[in-house]
Write a structure and sequence with these properties.
Length: about 270
């Protein structure tokens, strides 16, 4: 079975389970799954039940596809995503985004946990991603799927300026700090050395993480406008680098998630 057939099979299965009118797709990053509590859930599916779907192996990613209403709009939310460091290939990582396209989404909202390289940014703050540097691979390598998009997609506006402006207005109105900058994606799963943080800083990154760019590239390939926000969970000052562990990162993400939820809810309502 070719890749497009796998995508269509999964989409048909999900539609038959009642996911029929999704207009906004949401990807919830590490430690950021509680936005689902704000969704009026109508249906949910475990990834393990969906044909051809990868299965999340990270313990703090629950692995469910959620269907319901948020801000008066029909949304499809991924509670748990897939990472390159788990051993998945890029087609597997972006498979859910491609399926959501066939389910009818026309906007994609993405969240992630990231380390702050920009020393003006502090852990617990949010960063609106306005551009990215992809140091992973991507799912467009290999045969193009013309039914999804062009062979050479433009990436001059990977993150929608229109959606970003909505996010800024919401943050201002709620008096929330919303930083803005460039996100760099690395393979992981180890955190970076001081020399690597220095390198990432010098090439223009404000925050670093291990996700997001594969899905954003796939969404742009399919013509889906994207908004992405990082929750900054640790500070990566390479001149004064301190040890950090994943439990601390998850704890910071959980505390900051309420702010992310406010912005995502507002964006969905405004679209």
């Amino acid at each position: 079975m070719n890749e497009l057939s796998k995508i269509k099979e999964a989409a048909e299965y999900i539609q038959n389970k009642g996911f029929t009118q999704g207009t906004i797709g949401i990807i919830l990053g590490t430690g950021l799954g509680n936005l689902v509590t704000k969704i009026d859930v109508e249906k949910e599916l475990s990834y393990t039940d969906i044909p051809n779907f990868p299965e999340s192996t990270v313990e703090f990613h629950s692995g469910k596809l959620i269907y319901g209403k948020l801000g008066g709009k029909q949304v499809i939310a991924m509670q748990g995503r897939f990472h390159y460091y788990e051993g998945y290939n890029m087609n597997q990582i972006v498979f859910p985004v491609r399926v959501m396209k066939l389910l009818g989404i026309s906007t994609l909202l993405v969240s992630n946990a990231a380390g702050a390289i920009n020393t003006n940014f502090k852990k617990g703050e949010l960063m609106l991603i306005n551009d990215h540097i992809n140091l992973q691979s991507n799912a467009l390598i290999g045969a193009n799927i013309p039914e999804l998009g062009t062979r050479f997609p433009d990436m001059s506006e990977p993150y929608s300026k229109k959606l970003s402006e909505i996010a800024r207005k919401i943050a201002d109105g709620k008096q929330l700090v919303l930083r803005e900058g460039t996100y760099v994606s690395v393979q992981g799963p180890m955190l970076e050395t001081a020399a690597e943080y220095r390198y990432l800083d010098r090439i223009g990154a404000d925050a670093v993480g291990m996700s997001t760019t594969p899905e954003v590239i796939a969404a742009n390939h399919m013509g889906i406008p994207v908004l992405a926000i990082s929750v900054l969970t640790d500070e990566c000052d390479y001149n004064n680098l301190k040890p950090v562990n994943i439990e601390e990162i998850i704890a910071v993400a959980g505390k900051a998630e309420t702010k992310l939820t406010v912005i995502f809810e507002g964006i969905v309502a405004a679209i």
